[in-house]
């Protein structure tokens, strides 16, 4: 019996050591880096930059794969259902809160495990430079006077840009025609006049603003952005809303802690690398890396805020299948 017990204990110990060694060797093959929005989007541009920087840190290719749809729903569902081994990573954003709370997916943001944040930026309300509205109030006043007339483009139902647009319009009492449009086409539609306005990520339309082709009427964050210091926040204008578009990493639930720690370390090292930090500075994106503990605390607070915004706007769980 003693011999049998020794064999059992020895076998169990060997299995534990083998598992530990496997985690210690991670990564041994390329990592899928799943981007929730399409090619040319802000998520795609930033995601490919951090993936390249992380490849250098980890010594294995971090391969960007676009899986757009449902305001991030396709990506988050895919990663949630993936093997929890660290080889499938979601490039998350505020959409992990918006798409879950609007009901695009039948799970909460906590169905994934979150590695950390890389950067953040506000969501601006954008119009063409020669548009007749010079303030958000002027746009919303016309929208209220002529319901279901003015068009506002955004990334997709359940995305952060959708949420910013819905919050700004509905909290202003404006009934706009909301148009889900992929990133590059939103800018084309503003310039062509096919849409009256758009809600967008900050850094892409900023270059059009600086070129004198577009103008910001407001931004979603709680404080003004130094890259556009004269643009007021929605809260300054009397709208009870406040959030930034963040980006970071998430993995399937059950991923070993040792692997999550390695991912966190590689993400933060890549984010702070001279090359990546320089690109973020040039793009006017706020570099704000944080690890698991800090990011999960932020997510809990941001989720409560998102639920409150959605309930005020009357869209909480509105896409949930009944």
Oligomer: single chain
| Helix proportion | 40-55%
What is the CA-atom radius of gyration, in angstroms?
A: 22 Å
Count of DSSP strands: 11
CATH architecture of the largest domain: 3-Layer(aba) Sandwich
Q: What is the H/E string?
A: HEHEHEHEEHEHEHEHEEHHEH
- Beta-strand portion reads 15-25%
How would a crystallographer describe the biggest sheet? Answer: 6 strands, mixed
Shape, principal axes of CA atoms: globular
Give the end-to-end Cα distance, rounded to a whole number of Å. 58 Å
- CATH homology superfamily of the largest domain: Bordetella uptake gene, domain 1
What count of structural domains? 2
Low-confidence parts, pLDDT < 50 over ≥5 residues?
A: 13-19
Characteristic terms for this protein:
322 residues; alpha/beta; D-Maltodextrin-Binding Protein, domain 2; 2 domains; six-stranded mixed sheet; five-stranded mixed sheet
Write up this protein.
The protein has 322 residues and is of the alpha/beta class. It has two domains: 23-119 and 247-313, Bordetella uptake gene, domain 1 (D-Maltodextrin-Binding Protein, domain 2, 3-Layer(aba) Sandwich); 124-219, Periplasmic binding protein-like II (D-Maltodextrin-Binding Protein, domain 2, 3-Layer(aba) Sandwich). It is 45% helix and 19% strand. The chain contains eleven helices and eleven strands. It has helices at 2-25, 42-58, 73-80, 95-102, 136-145, 160-171, 183-192, 203-210, 257-271, 274-283, 292-313, and strands at residues 31-35, 62-66, 88-93, 112-121, 124-128, 151-154, 177-180, 197-199, 214-219, 245-252, 286-290. The strands form two sheets. The protein has a six-stranded mixed beta sheet with strand order 2-1-3-10-4-11, with helices on both faces. α2 packs across α9, α2 (42-58) runs antiparallel to α10 (274-283) and α6 runs parallel beside α11. The longest helix has 24 residues, at 2-25.
